[in-house]
Amino acid sequence: MSHRVKLINQPSSFTVHANETILEAAIRAGVALNYGCSNGTCGLCLTRMVSGQVEEIKSREFAVSEAHKLQGYVLTCVSSPRQDCEIEAINIEQPADIPEQTIEVKVRKLEQLSREVHRLVVQTPRTKRLRFLAGQYVKLELEAYGSCALSIASCPCEDRLIEFHMRSSSADTVPQAIVNTLHIGDHMLLQGPHGGFVLQEQLLRPITLFAFDIGFAAIKSLLEHITAQEQDVNIRLIWMACSEGGLYLHNLCRAWTDALDGFAYTGIILQQSPQELIAQPQQSCQMVETHLAAAMASEHDLSSHDIYVCAPAPVVDVFAKICAGKNYNHERFFVEPVRGSYDLSCMVMDD
Description:
Blueprint: E1 3-7, E2 13-16, H1 22-28, E3 46-51, E4 54-56, H2 66-70, E5 73-75, E6 79-81, E7 85-88, E8 101-112, E9 117-123, E10 137-142, E11 146-151, E12 161-167, H3 173-181, E13 187-194, E14 207-212, H4 216-228, E15 235-241, H5 250-259, E16 263-269, H6 274-279, H7 284-295, E17 306-310, H8 313-324, E18 333-336
Parallel strand pairs: 1-7, 14-15, 14-17, 15-16, 17-18
Antiparallel strand pairs: 1-2, 3-5, 3-7, 4-6, 8-9, 8-13, 9-12, 10-11, 10-13
Helix pairs in contact: 7-8
C-alpha cells in the first residue's frame, strides 16, 4: 500500500510505495532530502516526524538517541510510512545547498558505446553516497594522470551507481588512461558535484532538450530525473553529432519514444567529407541551422517552454537564433558546455 509524505512549510510531497523507504521515494520523486549513506550508517538523514507513523524496514548501524526518539526523529533511509505522514525537512533545490564531496569510487563497468565513446559506471561506498542534482558534473582523478571534468549521465535515483560518457580518442590523458589502464574493481577519486545546470522545478512547463555529441550525458541525467517524477510533461529531445557514432545511445532514445507519453526525439547526423569542408567551409553554420530548423518545425511558440542545451558555443548560438524566432523566453534558456572532448570534425567554426 502507498502513502503520501508531505514536507511541512513547503509545497513538496511524494508517494512512498510498499517496501520503499522515505528516502528512496523522495529521491525517485526528485525531492532532494538531506542524506549521506542511504543505508542507516551515517545519521545525516535524521528527520522529525510531525504526524503519522513509520516502521523501520531496513537494519541500521546508526544509534538514534532516546531524546531524538521522544521528539519523533527517524532515519528516512530505513523507515517506511504506515500511513500518510508529515515530516520536518528541507528540500534541497539549489546546487549551493549541496556540499562538495570527495569520494573514492570503484569501477563497475567500462563499456564501448561507439568507436570512440565509452560509458564508465562507478560505485560509491555503501557508507558514502554522492549527493548531486541531475545535470551537474564532477571531477574524476586518476593517480599519475591528473583529473578531468565529466557530466554525470545518470539520475540521482540510481542509488550508488554513477554513469559517465567520454571520448577516449582525444588528447585528454585521463579518459585515455581510464579506457586503457583501468579494470573492473579499480579505484579512482571523485570530487564534486559542480555546476548549476539543473532542472527548474516547475515541471508542468513543456521541456525542450538539445544535446551535441557527449553533451548527451548531462541531458540524459535531466531526462531520467524528469521521468522518475511521474509527472505529465511534454518533452522534445534533439541530439546532434558529426557522425553516427556520436549518437551512441540512439536506440535508447528511440525506446523512450515508444515508452514515454508526450516524448518526441530527433537524431541529427552532420557528417561531411573533408572535400566538402574544404570546398564550402562557410556552410557549416548554415548546415546546423537547416537541420535544427527542420527538427523544430512543428514548434511555433516556445514562450512557455523550459529549454536545456548542452553543446559547444557556436552550436548553442545557432540553436538560440532558431528559438528566438519562435518567441522563446531567454530567461528559461539554460546552457551547459560539453564536459570532456567532443567531435566537431564535420564543421569549420570558430570556437
